[in-house]
Design brief:
Elements (H helix, E strand, L loop, with lengths): L2 H35 L5 H30 L5 H6 L3 H25 L6 H16 L7 H34 L4 H28 L1 H6 L7 H26 L11 H24 L2 H28 L3 H9 L1 H19 L1 H16 L10 H17 L2 H10 L5 H19 L9 H15 L7 H33 L1
Helix pairs in contact: 1-2, 1-4, 1-13, 1-14, 1-15, 1-16, 1-17, 1-18, 2-13, 2-14, 2-15, 4-5, 4-14, 4-19, 5-19, 6-17, 6-18, 7-9, 7-12, 7-13, 7-17, 10-11, 13-17, 14-15, 17-18
Length: 488
């Protein structure tokens, strides 16, 4: 290995770690932001849990997704056609430039607390390198289009799923006369569903490399039936454990439902508006009767709001939210595992391509992602989220809409389902965890009404998403040209 190749190899490892660190710093909000924002977890506990599950997802699951970033945006073998014997060095320069560009943009966005898409960042950067080095015609725009479609579809799907989940919770728990009793009755079924999904994902995605090493088809009938049996057993056990633990919650005696009363207050407000229209439109007795009804409706609305304020502070009402704390922690770990499995690709894909090009002096299409590269990406993500990920975490967990453990659970579980479905797809589609989670949080907020959303923050986030792709492409192009000048 020449001195230039050794320098580029060391630089690739350092820059790959730098990119992974910034991925963790920005995308920690996607895994744990809602849990911290709803106060289901402290910041310290969130970091510890995220560290374990982010690394597990990155190391055990991340290899398949990495293939899309590394090989599908453009054909690396075109570097041999264009650059000949210098192809491996030029490709390494391009991948280093992509990592440096994505990491730098994420560093800038994290400083301002913008939850931008790391997938946007790195794909835009790889596109910038491909267009600069090979020409725009060599970029697989159809692949980029598929990836872009995933970024559009994922927040819509997660938002719809979160909206539906939270509306179900409202119907089955929060609109009941005694929400605590309803929560204790309904929560074990949620636990069963979460465990069922977790076991399935662990078997078919987390253990997928092991199945192949053992020469077993992970989707064979025996494995599928075995996994289903284990999932049902563990889910059933979790169901009964949850029901037993929930039965111990006996706080307070009130059965008032402040959410139901708040809905009643909003309905009375609408009644008042309509009665005013009647009073202004009609004459004589009808107008007088409408005025009397308005006064009565106002008194009833004030009484209802007073009930809401009184009962919202009761221990029994707060116990309803505490029912969902363990479930939200489970879903937070679920999202962390999914996030690691997807977003480690943003760091290890280009890094793997650079390392293989420099060590093999070729641009091979079939080599796998080395285990140590996956480990490096996982460690970088964990350190990033442990240092200053709180900046973006605050935006997602607190500024979009007010979150509670039940709302955070709906957002995280909906996002996790979308992320992991994409992760196990044959295409290895790299979706944006940021878009998925933010879409889910918006869906939960929308389920409470448009006024529950901070539209100003939502607009800022959307604007940062639009800027991310061109920013990554422009920075990568500049860094690539600079590296080409340096290495000659």
């Amino acid at each position: 290995m020449s001195g230039v190749e050794l320098f580029l190899l060391i630089l690739a490892v350092v820059v790959g770690f730098y990119a992974a660190w910034n991925i963790g710093a920005n995308d920690v909000a996607n895994a744990m932001g809602t849990s911290v924002g709803s106060r289901a977890l402290t910041l310290r506990r969130a970091v510890v849990l995220a560290a374990v599950f982010e690394f597990a997802g990155a190391y055990l699951v991340g290899s398949n997704v990495s293939e899309t970033i590394r090989k599908k945006v453009f054909d690396p073998q075109m570097f041999e056609v264009v650059f000949g014997a210098q192809a491996s060095v030029v490709l390494a320069c391009g991948m280093i430039a992509a990592l440096l560009a994505a990491g730098s943009w994420l560093l800038f966005a994290t400083y301002f607390g913008w939850p931008v898409s790391t997938t946007h960042s790195i794909v835009g950067a790889v596109v910038g390198v491909g267009a600069t080095a090979l020409g725009a015609g060599q970029v697989a725009w159809s692949k980029v289009g598929i990836i872009t479609a995933g970024w559009i579809v994922s927040p819509v799907l997660s938002g719809a799923a979160a909206y539906l989940l939270f509306r179900i919770l409202l119907s089955k728990v929060y609109y009941q006369r005694d929400p605590l009793t309803a929560a204790k009755r309904f929560a074990p079924y949620i636990v069963f569903l979460v465990v069922l999904v977790l076991v399935g994902v662990g078997a078919f995605k987390g253990l997928k490399p092991s199945w192949h090493r053992w020469g077993i088809d992970p989707f064979s009938r025996q494995v599928v039936l075995g996994t289903l049996g284990v999932a049902l057993v563990l889910g059933t056990a979790a169901f009964f454990v949850a029901r037993r633990l929930l039965a111990r919650i006996t706080e307070g005696t009130s059965v008032c439902n402040p959410i139901g009363y708040a809905e009643a207050a909003r309905s009375l407000g609408k009644v008042i508006v309509h009665l005013r229209r009647v009073r202004e439109t009609c004459n004589g007795g009808l107008s007088e009767q409408a005025g009397l009804l308005i006064r009565q409706a106002k008194q009833l609305r004030e009484q209802t709001l007073a009930e809401v304020e009184q009962f919202s502070s009761e221990a029994r009402w707060h116990a309803v939210e505490r029912v969902f704390v363990p479930v939200q922690v489970m879903t937070a770990c679920f999202v962390a595992f999914a996030h690691g499995s997807n977003d480690v690709a943003n760091a290890v894909g280009p890094l793997s391509a650079a390392v293989q090009a420099l060590t093999s002096h070729s641009v091979r299409m079939t080599a796998g992602v080395p285990a140590w590269v996956l480990a490096l990406g996982g460690v970088g993500i964990v350190i990033g989220l442990a240092t200053w990920g709180w900046r973006v975490m605050k935006t997602v967990g607190e500024k979009i809409t007010e979150l509670t453990p039940s709302r955070g659970f709906c957002a995280e579980f909906a996002a996790a389902i979308v992320i992991l479905v994409a992760s196990v797809m044959p295409l290895g589609l790299p979706i944006s965890t940021t878009h998925t989670l933010v879409g889910a949080v918006l869906g939960v907020g929308l389920a409470r009404g448009l006024t529950a959303l901070n539209l100003s923050v939502a607009r800022t986030i959307l604007a940062s998403w639009v800027v991310t792709i061109p920013a990554g492409a422009i920075l990568a192009s500049l860094f690539y040209l600079l590296l080409r000048v340096l290495v000659g």
